[in-house]
């Protein structure tokens, strides 16, 4: 426990999760598998999480805050008839239709909205929805495994309650949906640190994307090189997030913790480790207290190494929100419980430590680091000028 002013030791963060979430399932061959919740929630519980809330369905009116009603109607039609021809991003590929897809997606959205409402009411200080962070969903289009943009809907809730929201997106993919939904809103700053769109889906998130005509400086993008690891990634997080928070003066922090930048992840090309995730999450906690009276809503996100990486990444978010240091070792009971299943998917052995060993991957070569460092510098200096920041 820390004794920092403003940090209430012993107050357990809220975790939004329930079995209904397992219904968000694009099928057995899809990388975003509900199998991640078994080992993931189980490690969080073994780590100490016990304050859980079942998500609720978002209403059509709540979804309409950011999604076009004809899109919601389309998702509903696919939910009862998955065989309909492809439309609005739903169909074969990243977002295949499945029975009940509206209800499952509205449950993730409702979970994030409900978590935010509790933070706004002051009944919770920190909350985390592991299933949330569906950051690619657009106003009228499904994209990148995301149907409804739960995390953007939570931001809108805070915005409507008069908050200035800093959104930090750590997923390896650019947070394009959230950026687009608040592109012209000066009260929401979206900050995304990701692998460059030149190498990875969705292709956006360049340095030049800095906000719409009515909100110059409402977006910061840090497109890192493919192959970047802890050295570059942490430098980016530790340089730009505190500086942006200081200049923007948010009253609410919302974060997305996709762990697909990890060295083991099969879908992207970065080499980050859980050691860097732990430093990032504890920095975010510090910033929530420094700038936003502790108001902090966190979500999961991408992450496709579902036994070795996702459970530890979620647990590290919970630990930071609980103001606890990561224990040295992962519980033996957890490893025993999931070892066979993990092995069946080629993910052995399950890690014995929360923090990856320093030698899991070689440090970023100087040349790579220098390129990334220059990207961070350009992103920050351009933003400070556009936003009139550095106040
Ligand atoms: Zn805290
Ligand atoms: Zn991702």
Provide structural commentary.
Helix content is 38%, strand content 9%. The protein is of the alpha/beta class and 391 residues long. The chain has one domain (14-386): Arginase, Chain A. α4 packs parallel to α5 (150-160) and α7 runs parallel beside α8 (274-292). The longest helix has 21 residues, at 101-121. Residues 1-6 have low confidence and may be disordered. It binds zinc ion (2 copies).
CATH topology: Arginase, Chain A
Q: Compute the CA-based radius of gyration.
A: 19 Å
Strand proportion: 5-15%
CATH architecture tag: 3-Layer(aba) Sandwich
List its traits.
391 residues; alpha/beta; Arginase, Chain A; eight-stranded parallel β-sheet; globular; binds zinc ion
How would the blueprint of this fold be written?
Blueprint: E1 14-16, H1 37-47, E2 52-53, H2 60-63, H3 69-80, H4 101-121, E3 126-129, H5 150-160, E4 165-169, H6 176-181, E5 188-195, E6 219-224, H7 230-248, E7 252-256, H8 274-292, E8 296-299, H9 310-321, H10 332-344, H11 366-386
Parallel strand pairs: 1-2, 1-3, 3-8, 4-5, 4-7, 5-6, 7-8
Helix pairs in contact: 1-9, 4-5, 7-8, 7-11, 8-9
The structure holds zinc ion (ZN) (2 copies).
The site of one zinc ion has 7 residues, from loops.
Quick overview of this protein structure:
By secondary structure, this protein is α/β, with parallel strands linked by helices. It has eleven helices and eight strands.
